[in-house]
Amino acid sequence: MTNIPHWCSYVAGKWLDGGAVFTVENPADESTVAELAAASVADIGWAVTEARRSFDSGVWADLPAVERAQTLHAFLEHLESAREVLVDLIVAEGGQPVFYAEGAQFRTTMTMARETIDLYLSMAHEEANPVPVDELIRAGVRLSIRRYEPIGVVAAITPYNAPFIMGMQKLIPALMAGNSVVLRPSPLTPISSLMFGAAAAAAGLPPGVLSVVVEPGAAGAELLTTDPAVDMVSFTGSTTVGRAILSQAAPTVKRVALELGGKSAQIYLPDAVEHAARGAAAVVGATAGQACIAATRMLVPQDRKDEVIAAVSQAYAGIEVGPPSDRAATMGPVISAAQRQRCERYVALAQDNGGRVVFGGGRPAGLERGYYFEPTVLDLPDNDNPAAREEIFGPVIGVIGYRDIDDAVRIANDSDYGLSGQVYGADVAAATAVARRLRTGAVNVNAGLYSAYAPSGGYKHSGLGRERGTDGIRAFQEVKHIAIGDLR
Protein backbone atom coordinates (compact mmCIF):
# COMPACT_ATOMS: atom_id res chain seq x y z
CA MET A 1 0.00 0.00 0.00
CA THR A 2 2.99 2.32 0.43
CA ASN A 3 3.61 2.54 -3.33
CA ILE A 4 0.54 4.66 -4.06
CA PRO A 5 1.98 8.11 -4.80
CA HIS A 6 -0.58 10.18 -2.91
CA TRP A 7 -3.55 9.55 -0.61
CA CYS A 8 -5.56 12.52 -1.80
CA SER A 9 -7.31 14.03 -4.80
CA TYR A 10 -5.53 15.07 -7.99
CA VAL A 11 -6.82 18.41 -9.31
CA ALA A 12 -5.42 20.51 -12.17
CA GLY A 13 -2.04 18.78 -12.04
CA LYS A 14 -1.67 19.04 -8.24
CA TRP A 15 -2.17 16.66 -5.32
CA LEU A 16 -4.41 18.16 -2.65
CA ASP A 17 -2.74 17.25 0.62
CA GLY A 18 -4.68 18.13 3.76
CA GLY A 19 -8.37 18.26 4.43
CA ALA A 20 -10.68 15.98 6.39
CA VAL A 21 -9.63 12.35 6.54
CA PHE A 22 -11.84 9.37 5.74
CA THR A 23 -11.17 5.65 5.97
CA VAL A 24 -11.40 3.01 3.25
CA GLU A 25 -12.21 -0.42 4.64
CA ASN A 26 -11.17 -3.85 3.39
CA PRO A 27 -14.43 -5.83 3.15
CA ALA A 28 -12.57 -9.13 3.46
CA ASP A 29 -11.44 -8.55 7.05
CA GLU A 30 -12.84 -5.11 8.07
CA SER A 31 -9.34 -3.69 8.41
CA THR A 32 -8.35 -0.22 7.26
CA VAL A 33 -6.82 -0.15 3.79
CA ALA A 34 -5.94 3.53 3.93
CA GLU A 35 -6.91 6.92 5.25
CA LEU A 36 -7.52 9.43 2.47
CA ALA A 37 -7.70 13.20 2.49
CA ALA A 38 -11.18 14.12 1.31
CA ALA A 39 -11.74 16.74 -1.35
CA SER A 40 -14.02 19.49 -0.13
CA VAL A 41 -16.92 20.77 -2.21
CA ALA A 42 -14.77 23.82 -2.92
CA ASP A 43 -11.95 21.55 -4.16
CA ILE A 44 -14.34 19.78 -6.50
CA GLY A 45 -15.65 23.12 -7.69
CA TRP A 46 -12.06 24.08 -8.47
CA ALA A 47 -11.64 20.85 -10.46
CA VAL A 48 -14.69 21.81 -12.53
CA THR A 49 -13.37 25.34 -13.06
CA GLU A 50 -10.01 24.02 -14.24
CA ALA A 51 -11.66 21.46 -16.48
CA ARG A 52 -13.71 24.26 -18.03
CA ARG A 53 -10.61 26.41 -18.47
CA SER A 54 -8.59 23.60 -20.05
CA PHE A 55 -11.37 22.72 -22.44
CA ASP A 56 -12.17 26.27 -23.50
CA SER A 57 -8.48 27.01 -24.08
CA GLY A 58 -8.24 24.12 -26.55
CA VAL A 59 -4.99 22.90 -24.99
CA TRP A 60 -6.26 19.31 -25.28
CA ALA A 61 -9.39 19.46 -27.44
CA ASP A 62 -7.60 21.18 -30.33
CA LEU A 63 -4.73 18.72 -30.50
CA PRO A 64 -4.75 16.33 -33.48
CA ALA A 65 -6.28 13.01 -32.48
CA VAL A 66 -3.00 11.17 -33.07
CA GLU A 67 -1.28 13.41 -30.52
CA ARG A 68 -4.00 12.80 -27.95
CA ALA A 69 -3.56 9.08 -28.67
CA GLN A 70 0.20 9.29 -28.04
CA THR A 71 -0.36 10.94 -24.68
CA LEU A 72 -3.00 8.40 -23.68
CA HIS A 73 -0.72 5.52 -24.63
CA ALA A 74 1.86 7.03 -22.27
CA PHE A 75 -0.93 7.24 -19.67
CA LEU A 76 -1.58 3.52 -20.14
CA GLU A 77 2.12 2.66 -20.03
CA HIS A 78 2.36 4.27 -16.60
CA LEU A 79 -0.59 2.20 -15.38
CA GLU A 80 1.04 -0.90 -16.85
CA SER A 81 4.21 -0.17 -14.91
CA ALA A 82 2.13 0.00 -11.73
CA ARG A 83 0.32 -3.30 -12.35
CA GLU A 84 1.33 -4.99 -9.09
CA VAL A 85 0.35 -1.97 -7.01
CA LEU A 86 -2.96 -1.60 -8.84
CA VAL A 87 -3.89 -5.26 -8.44
CA ASP A 88 -3.10 -5.08 -4.72
CA LEU A 89 -5.29 -1.99 -4.39
CA ILE A 90 -8.18 -3.51 -6.32
CA VAL A 91 -8.07 -6.62 -4.13
CA ALA A 92 -7.75 -4.70 -0.88
CA GLU A 93 -10.49 -2.12 -1.40
CA GLY A 94 -12.94 -4.35 -3.28
CA GLY A 95 -12.37 -7.74 -1.66
CA GLN A 96 -12.27 -9.50 -5.02
CA PRO A 97 -10.14 -12.60 -5.66
CA VAL A 98 -6.66 -11.99 -7.02
CA PHE A 99 -7.29 -13.91 -10.24
CA TYR A 100 -10.22 -11.62 -11.05
CA ALA A 101 -8.31 -8.44 -10.20
CA GLU A 102 -5.37 -9.54 -12.34
CA GLY A 103 -7.49 -10.75 -15.25
CA ALA A 104 -10.81 -9.04 -15.80
CA GLN A 105 -10.06 -5.93 -13.78
CA PHE A 106 -6.55 -5.19 -15.03
CA ARG A 107 -5.39 -7.12 -18.12
CA THR A 108 -8.71 -7.10 -19.95
CA THR A 109 -9.31 -3.46 -19.12
CA MET A 110 -5.87 -2.39 -20.36
CA THR A 111 -6.45 -4.24 -23.63
CA MET A 112 -9.86 -2.62 -23.98
CA ALA A 113 -8.36 0.83 -23.39
CA ARG A 114 -5.78 0.40 -26.14
CA GLU A 115 -8.42 -0.92 -28.51
CA THR A 116 -10.66 2.06 -27.74
CA ILE A 117 -7.89 4.40 -28.86
CA ASP A 118 -7.50 2.39 -32.07
CA LEU A 119 -11.25 2.41 -32.62
CA TYR A 120 -11.45 6.16 -32.22
CA LEU A 121 -8.64 6.69 -34.72
CA SER A 122 -10.37 4.40 -37.22
CA MET A 123 -13.61 6.39 -37.11
CA ALA A 124 -14.50 9.38 -39.26
CA HIS A 125 -15.09 12.47 -37.14
CA GLU A 126 -16.03 14.65 -40.09
CA GLU A 127 -17.94 13.15 -42.99
CA ALA A 128 -20.28 14.02 -45.81
CA ASN A 129 -24.01 13.75 -45.16
CA PRO A 130 -25.96 11.49 -47.53
CA VAL A 131 -28.09 14.37 -48.84
CA PRO A 132 -29.43 13.74 -52.37
CA VAL A 133 -27.58 15.77 -55.00
CA ASP A 134 -30.74 17.41 -56.36
CA GLU A 135 -31.58 18.66 -52.87
CA LEU A 136 -28.09 20.15 -52.48
CA ILE A 137 -28.46 21.88 -55.85
CA ARG A 138 -31.85 23.36 -54.96
CA ALA A 139 -30.39 24.76 -51.74
CA GLY A 140 -27.27 26.09 -53.43
CA VAL A 141 -25.10 23.88 -51.21
CA ARG A 142 -21.86 22.35 -52.44
CA LEU A 143 -21.28 20.17 -49.41
CA SER A 144 -23.20 19.00 -46.34
CA ILE A 145 -20.92 17.87 -43.54
CA ARG A 146 -21.55 16.01 -40.28
CA ARG A 147 -18.86 16.89 -37.76
CA TYR A 148 -18.32 15.18 -34.40
CA GLU A 149 -16.91 17.43 -31.70
CA PRO A 150 -16.16 17.00 -27.97
CA ILE A 151 -18.98 17.83 -25.59
CA GLY A 152 -16.79 19.80 -23.19
CA VAL A 153 -16.49 19.08 -19.46
CA VAL A 154 -17.48 15.55 -18.45
CA ALA A 155 -18.19 14.42 -14.88
CA ALA A 156 -17.51 10.68 -14.64
CA ILE A 157 -18.97 8.97 -11.56
CA THR A 158 -18.05 5.31 -11.05
CA PRO A 159 -19.34 2.49 -8.80
CA TYR A 160 -17.63 0.45 -6.12
CA ASN A 161 -17.78 -2.96 -7.76
CA ALA A 162 -15.40 -2.29 -10.68
CA PRO A 163 -13.74 1.11 -10.22
CA PHE A 164 -10.79 0.44 -12.50
CA ILE A 165 -12.89 -1.04 -15.31
CA MET A 166 -15.56 1.63 -15.15
CA GLY A 167 -13.09 4.45 -14.76
CA MET A 168 -11.15 3.40 -17.84
CA GLN A 169 -14.35 2.72 -19.77
CA LYS A 170 -15.28 6.40 -19.34
CA LEU A 171 -11.90 8.13 -19.33
CA ILE A 172 -10.38 6.78 -22.53
CA PRO A 173 -13.26 7.54 -24.95
CA ALA A 174 -14.00 10.87 -23.27
CA LEU A 175 -10.37 11.99 -23.40
CA MET A 176 -9.77 10.68 -26.91
CA ALA A 177 -12.78 12.72 -28.03
CA GLY A 178 -11.08 15.84 -26.65
CA ASN A 179 -13.11 16.39 -23.48
CA SER A 180 -11.82 17.43 -20.07
CA VAL A 181 -12.90 15.04 -17.29
CA VAL A 182 -13.47 15.15 -13.55
CA LEU A 183 -13.56 11.59 -12.22
CA ARG A 184 -15.30 10.89 -8.91
CA PRO A 185 -15.05 7.22 -7.82
CA SER A 186 -17.21 5.53 -5.20
CA PRO A 187 -16.25 6.39 -1.60
CA LEU A 188 -16.12 2.65 -0.90
CA THR A 189 -13.39 1.92 -3.47
CA PRO A 190 -11.64 5.18 -4.40
CA ILE A 191 -7.98 4.26 -4.01
CA SER A 192 -7.20 2.49 -7.29
CA SER A 193 -8.69 5.45 -9.18
CA LEU A 194 -6.01 7.73 -7.72
CA MET A 195 -3.59 5.93 -10.00
CA PHE A 196 -5.33 7.64 -12.92
CA GLY A 197 -4.13 10.93 -11.46
CA ALA A 198 -0.58 9.61 -11.18
CA ALA A 199 -0.75 8.38 -14.78
CA ALA A 200 -2.05 11.75 -15.99
CA ALA A 201 0.88 13.51 -14.34
CA ALA A 202 3.41 11.00 -15.72
CA ALA A 203 1.99 11.22 -19.25
CA GLY A 204 1.94 14.99 -19.27
CA LEU A 205 -1.78 15.60 -19.67
CA PRO A 206 -2.26 19.37 -19.47
CA PRO A 207 -3.45 20.53 -16.03
CA GLY A 208 -7.22 20.46 -15.72
CA VAL A 209 -7.79 17.90 -18.48
CA LEU A 210 -8.15 15.11 -15.93
CA SER A 211 -8.86 15.50 -12.22
CA VAL A 212 -9.63 12.69 -9.78
CA VAL A 213 -11.56 13.71 -6.67
CA VAL A 214 -12.28 11.49 -3.66
CA GLU A 215 -14.84 12.12 -0.94
CA PRO A 216 -16.63 10.10 1.77
CA GLY A 217 -20.11 11.39 0.96
CA ALA A 218 -22.08 12.65 -2.02
CA ALA A 219 -21.88 16.46 -1.76
CA GLY A 220 -19.17 16.69 -4.39
CA ALA A 221 -20.97 14.30 -6.70
CA GLU A 222 -24.08 16.44 -6.44
CA LEU A 223 -22.05 19.50 -7.39
CA LEU A 224 -20.79 17.67 -10.47
CA THR A 225 -24.35 16.89 -11.55
CA THR A 226 -25.64 20.43 -11.02
CA ASP A 227 -22.78 22.80 -11.88
CA PRO A 228 -23.58 24.63 -15.13
CA ALA A 229 -19.90 24.40 -16.13
CA VAL A 230 -20.29 20.62 -16.50
CA ASP A 231 -21.64 19.63 -19.91
CA MET A 232 -22.15 15.91 -19.36
CA VAL A 233 -22.52 13.40 -16.55
CA SER A 234 -21.54 9.79 -17.21
CA PHE A 235 -22.67 7.60 -14.31
CA THR A 236 -22.60 3.89 -13.56
CA GLY A 237 -24.47 2.73 -10.48
CA SER A 238 -27.89 2.12 -9.03
CA THR A 239 -31.14 3.09 -10.68
CA THR A 240 -32.13 5.05 -7.58
CA VAL A 241 -29.08 7.29 -7.84
CA GLY A 242 -29.48 7.48 -11.62
CA ARG A 243 -32.96 8.96 -11.20
CA ALA A 244 -31.57 11.54 -8.79
CA ILE A 245 -28.84 12.49 -11.28
CA LEU A 246 -31.42 12.99 -14.02
CA SER A 247 -33.31 15.35 -11.74
CA GLN A 248 -30.17 17.23 -10.70
CA ALA A 249 -28.92 17.59 -14.28
CA ALA A 250 -32.25 18.74 -15.73
CA PRO A 251 -32.08 22.46 -14.83
CA THR A 252 -28.83 22.88 -16.77
CA VAL A 253 -29.91 20.45 -19.55
CA LYS A 254 -26.74 18.38 -19.34
CA ARG A 255 -26.08 15.37 -21.49
CA VAL A 256 -26.57 12.36 -19.20
CA ALA A 257 -25.33 8.82 -19.84
CA LEU A 258 -26.49 6.23 -17.31
CA GLU A 259 -25.62 2.57 -16.91
CA LEU A 260 -27.88 1.50 -14.06
CA GLY A 261 -29.25 -1.56 -12.31
CA GLY A 262 -30.30 -4.86 -13.77
CA LYS A 263 -32.27 -7.99 -13.01
CA SER A 264 -31.16 -9.99 -15.99
CA ALA A 265 -32.57 -13.36 -16.96
CA GLN A 266 -30.74 -16.41 -18.25
CA ILE A 267 -33.05 -18.65 -20.25
CA TYR A 268 -32.28 -22.35 -20.75
CA LEU A 269 -34.09 -23.89 -23.67
CA PRO A 270 -35.08 -27.54 -23.23
CA ASP A 271 -32.05 -28.75 -25.21
CA ALA A 272 -29.56 -26.89 -23.00
CA VAL A 273 -30.74 -27.52 -19.42
CA GLU A 274 -27.59 -29.48 -18.57
CA HIS A 275 -25.57 -26.25 -18.87
CA ALA A 276 -27.51 -24.45 -16.12
CA ALA A 277 -25.09 -25.25 -13.29
CA ARG A 278 -22.18 -23.66 -15.13
CA GLY A 279 -24.20 -20.57 -15.97
CA ALA A 280 -25.33 -20.21 -12.37
CA ALA A 281 -21.76 -20.40 -11.08
CA ALA A 282 -20.78 -17.49 -13.33
CA VAL A 283 -23.35 -15.27 -11.60
CA VAL A 284 -21.65 -15.36 -8.21
CA GLY A 285 -18.07 -16.34 -9.00
CA ALA A 286 -15.38 -13.67 -8.53
CA THR A 287 -17.78 -10.73 -8.05
CA ALA A 288 -20.02 -12.26 -5.35
CA GLY A 289 -22.93 -11.30 -7.58
CA GLN A 290 -21.98 -7.61 -7.45
CA ALA A 291 -22.31 -6.96 -11.16
CA CYS A 292 -25.12 -5.00 -12.79
CA ILE A 293 -25.22 -7.49 -15.68
CA ALA A 294 -25.43 -10.55 -13.41
CA ALA A 295 -28.17 -12.86 -14.69
CA THR A 296 -29.73 -13.62 -11.31
CA ARG A 297 -33.06 -14.88 -12.69
CA MET A 298 -32.66 -18.42 -14.05
CA LEU A 299 -35.57 -19.51 -16.27
CA VAL A 300 -35.87 -23.24 -16.94
CA PRO A 301 -38.58 -25.61 -18.19
CA GLN A 302 -41.05 -26.17 -15.37
CA ASP A 303 -40.90 -29.95 -15.68
CA ARG A 304 -37.12 -29.91 -15.16
CA LYS A 305 -36.94 -27.27 -12.46
CA ASP A 306 -36.16 -29.70 -9.62
CA GLU A 307 -33.34 -31.20 -11.65
CA VAL A 308 -31.84 -27.77 -12.30
CA ILE A 309 -32.15 -26.66 -8.68
CA ALA A 310 -30.27 -29.77 -7.55
CA ALA A 311 -27.49 -29.19 -10.11
CA VAL A 312 -27.14 -25.50 -9.27
CA SER A 313 -27.04 -26.23 -5.56
CA GLN A 314 -24.29 -28.78 -6.13
CA ALA A 315 -22.33 -26.23 -8.15
CA TYR A 316 -22.71 -23.61 -5.42
CA ALA A 317 -21.54 -26.11 -2.82
CA GLY A 318 -18.26 -26.27 -4.75
CA ILE A 319 -17.63 -22.53 -4.60
CA GLU A 320 -14.83 -21.70 -2.19
CA VAL A 321 -15.75 -18.59 -0.21
CA GLY A 322 -12.93 -16.80 1.52
CA PRO A 323 -10.53 -13.85 1.63
CA PRO A 324 -8.65 -12.86 -1.53
CA SER A 325 -5.40 -13.72 0.28
CA ASP A 326 -6.47 -17.37 -0.04
CA ARG A 327 -5.62 -18.33 -3.63
CA ALA A 328 -8.10 -21.21 -3.39
CA ALA A 329 -11.01 -18.81 -2.83
CA THR A 330 -13.18 -18.23 -5.88
CA MET A 331 -15.61 -15.83 -4.22
CA GLY A 332 -14.92 -13.07 -1.74
CA PRO A 333 -17.15 -10.85 0.39
CA VAL A 334 -19.76 -8.30 -0.58
CA ILE A 335 -18.62 -4.72 -0.16
CA SER A 336 -20.09 -3.77 3.23
CA ALA A 337 -22.20 -4.73 6.21
CA ALA A 338 -25.12 -2.87 4.63
CA GLN A 339 -24.83 -4.90 1.44
CA ARG A 340 -24.73 -8.16 3.38
CA GLN A 341 -27.85 -7.07 5.27
CA ARG A 342 -29.54 -6.36 1.94
CA CYS A 343 -28.85 -9.96 0.87
CA GLU A 344 -30.29 -11.25 4.14
CA ARG A 345 -33.37 -9.05 3.78
CA TYR A 346 -34.19 -10.27 0.28
CA VAL A 347 -33.69 -13.90 1.20
CA ALA A 348 -36.21 -13.39 4.00
CA LEU A 349 -38.60 -11.57 1.65
CA ALA A 350 -38.31 -14.38 -0.86
CA GLN A 351 -39.41 -16.88 1.77
CA ASP A 352 -42.18 -14.63 3.05
CA ASN A 353 -43.61 -14.61 -0.47
CA GLY A 354 -43.58 -18.34 -1.13
CA GLY A 355 -39.95 -18.88 -2.10
CA ARG A 356 -37.67 -21.53 -0.68
CA VAL A 357 -33.98 -21.43 0.22
CA VAL A 358 -32.42 -24.52 -1.31
CA PHE A 359 -28.78 -23.71 -0.66
CA GLY A 360 -26.99 -21.04 1.38
CA GLY A 361 -28.98 -18.07 2.57
CA GLY A 362 -26.76 -16.83 5.37
CA ARG A 363 -23.29 -16.04 6.57
CA PRO A 364 -20.69 -18.78 6.01
CA ALA A 365 -19.24 -20.51 9.06
CA GLY A 366 -15.65 -19.79 10.01
CA LEU A 367 -15.53 -16.29 8.54
CA GLU A 368 -16.31 -14.12 11.54
CA ARG A 369 -14.65 -11.02 10.12
CA GLY A 370 -15.46 -9.63 6.70
CA TYR A 371 -18.76 -9.19 4.91
CA TYR A 372 -19.28 -12.67 3.55
CA PHE A 373 -22.56 -14.15 2.35
CA GLU A 374 -23.08 -17.69 1.14
CA PRO A 375 -23.77 -18.44 -2.53
CA THR A 376 -27.53 -18.82 -2.36
CA VAL A 377 -30.05 -20.69 -4.48
CA LEU A 378 -33.71 -19.71 -4.23
CA ASP A 379 -36.61 -21.74 -5.59
CA LEU A 380 -39.02 -18.99 -6.64
CA PRO A 381 -42.67 -19.79 -7.38
CA ASP A 382 -43.07 -16.98 -9.92
CA ASN A 383 -41.65 -13.73 -11.23
CA ASP A 384 -43.67 -11.64 -8.75
CA ASN A 385 -41.47 -12.67 -5.83
CA PRO A 386 -39.42 -9.72 -4.46
CA ALA A 387 -36.21 -11.66 -5.11
CA ALA A 388 -37.18 -11.79 -8.79
CA ARG A 389 -38.18 -8.13 -9.05
CA GLU A 390 -35.39 -6.24 -7.30
CA GLU A 391 -31.64 -6.08 -7.86
CA ILE A 392 -30.06 -7.67 -4.79
CA PHE A 393 -26.43 -7.16 -5.85
CA GLY A 394 -25.13 -10.19 -4.03
CA PRO A 395 -24.51 -13.93 -4.55
CA VAL A 396 -28.19 -14.87 -4.77
CA ILE A 397 -29.84 -16.56 -7.76
CA GLY A 398 -33.51 -17.36 -8.17
CA VAL A 399 -34.75 -20.30 -10.26
CA ILE A 400 -38.15 -19.85 -11.96
CA GLY A 401 -39.97 -22.39 -14.10
CA TYR A 402 -41.58 -21.59 -17.47
CA ARG A 403 -44.29 -23.44 -19.44
CA ASP A 404 -43.05 -22.81 -22.98
CA ILE A 405 -40.84 -20.42 -24.94
CA ASP A 406 -43.47 -17.69 -25.07
CA ASP A 407 -43.82 -17.91 -21.31
CA ALA A 408 -40.02 -17.71 -20.87
CA VAL A 409 -39.86 -14.56 -23.00
CA ARG A 410 -42.78 -13.05 -21.10
CA ILE A 411 -41.11 -13.68 -17.74
CA ALA A 412 -37.75 -12.35 -18.92
CA ASN A 413 -39.35 -9.14 -20.21
CA ASP A 414 -41.55 -8.72 -17.13
CA SER A 415 -39.06 -6.45 -15.36
CA ASP A 416 -38.44 -2.76 -14.84
CA TYR A 417 -34.88 -3.48 -15.93
CA GLY A 418 -33.33 -4.35 -19.28
CA LEU A 419 -29.55 -4.34 -19.05
CA SER A 420 -28.46 -7.80 -20.15
CA GLY A 421 -29.68 -11.31 -20.80
CA GLN A 422 -28.57 -14.80 -21.73
CA VAL A 423 -30.08 -17.56 -23.84
CA TYR A 424 -28.69 -21.10 -23.96
CA GLY A 425 -29.73 -23.56 -26.63
CA ALA A 426 -28.15 -26.32 -28.71
CA ASP A 427 -30.25 -25.09 -31.61
CA VAL A 428 -28.43 -21.78 -32.11
CA ALA A 429 -31.01 -20.42 -34.55
CA ALA A 430 -33.82 -21.05 -32.07
CA ALA A 431 -31.83 -19.50 -29.22
CA THR A 432 -31.03 -16.45 -31.33
CA ALA A 433 -34.70 -16.05 -32.20
CA VAL A 434 -35.45 -15.89 -28.47
CA ALA A 435 -32.63 -13.35 -27.96
CA ARG A 436 -34.20 -11.04 -30.53
CA ARG A 437 -37.43 -10.99 -28.52
CA LEU A 438 -35.80 -9.86 -25.26
CA ARG A 439 -36.16 -6.19 -24.27
CA THR A 440 -32.64 -5.70 -23.03
CA GLY A 441 -29.52 -3.85 -24.14
CA ALA A 442 -27.36 -6.94 -24.63
CA VAL A 443 -28.03 -10.66 -24.98
CA ASN A 444 -25.43 -13.44 -24.91
CA VAL A 445 -26.38 -16.58 -26.80
CA ASN A 446 -24.30 -19.50 -25.49
CA ALA A 447 -21.27 -17.20 -25.05
CA GLY A 448 -20.39 -13.67 -23.97
CA LEU A 449 -18.28 -10.85 -25.34
CA TYR A 450 -16.69 -7.95 -23.46
CA SER A 451 -14.91 -5.82 -26.03
CA ALA A 452 -13.99 -2.26 -26.86
CA TYR A 453 -15.80 -2.82 -30.16
CA ALA A 454 -19.14 -4.03 -28.73
CA PRO A 455 -21.60 -1.65 -27.01
CA SER A 456 -23.38 -2.17 -23.70
CA GLY A 457 -26.22 -0.31 -22.04
CA GLY A 458 -29.76 -0.66 -20.86
CA TYR A 459 -33.39 -0.50 -21.86
CA LYS A 460 -36.05 0.80 -19.47
CA HIS A 461 -34.82 1.54 -15.94
CA SER A 462 -31.38 0.15 -16.72
CA GLY A 463 -30.13 3.35 -18.23
CA LEU A 464 -29.63 5.79 -21.08
CA GLY A 465 -27.01 5.66 -23.80
CA ARG A 466 -24.24 3.17 -24.47
CA GLU A 467 -20.67 2.55 -23.40
CA ARG A 468 -17.95 0.91 -25.49
CA GLY A 469 -18.05 0.45 -29.23
CA THR A 470 -18.62 3.31 -31.67
CA ASP A 471 -21.78 4.27 -29.77
CA GLY A 472 -19.74 4.63 -26.59
CA ILE A 473 -17.35 7.03 -28.30
CA ARG A 474 -20.14 9.03 -29.94
CA ALA A 475 -21.72 9.40 -26.48
CA PHE A 476 -18.91 11.84 -25.64
CA GLN A 477 -19.34 13.88 -28.81
CA GLU A 478 -21.72 16.52 -30.12
CA VAL A 479 -22.91 16.39 -33.73
CA LYS A 480 -22.62 19.53 -35.81
CA HIS A 481 -24.05 19.98 -39.30
CA ILE A 482 -22.17 22.33 -41.65
CA ALA A 483 -23.68 23.34 -44.98
CA ILE A 484 -21.18 24.93 -47.42
CA GLY A 485 -22.16 26.92 -50.49
CA ASP A 486 -21.05 29.84 -52.66
CA LEU A 487 -22.14 33.42 -52.28
CA ARG A 488 -24.69 34.28 -54.98
TrEMBL record:
<dbReference type="InterPro" id="IPR016161">
    <property type="entry name" value="Ald_DH/histidinol_DH"/>
</dbReference>
<dbReference type="InterPro" id="IPR016162">
    <property type="entry name" value="Ald_DH_N"/>
</dbReference>
<dbReference type="InterPro" id="IPR015590">
    <property type="entry name" value="Aldehyde_DH_dom"/>
</dbReference>
<dbReference type="InterPro" id="IPR029510">
    <property type="entry name" value="Ald_DH_CS_GLU"/>
</dbReference>
<protein>
    <submittedName>
        <fullName>Aldehyde dehydrogenase</fullName>
    </submittedName>
</protein>
<keyword id="KW-0560">Oxidoreductase</keyword>
<dbReference type="GO" id="GO:0016620">
    <property type="term" value="F:oxidoreductase activity, acting on the aldehyde or oxo group of donors, NAD or NADP as acceptor"/>
</dbReference>
<feature type="active site">
    <location>
        <position position="259"/>
    </location>
</feature>
<feature type="domain" description="Aldehyde dehydrogenase">
    <location>
        <begin position="21"/>
        <end position="482"/>
    </location>
</feature>
<dbReference type="InterPro" id="IPR016163">
    <property type="entry name" value="Ald_DH_C"/>
</dbReference>
<comment type="similarity">
    <text>Belongs to the aldehyde dehydrogenase family.</text>
</comment>
<dbReference type="Pfam" id="PF00171">
    <property type="entry name" value="Aldedh"/>
</dbReference>
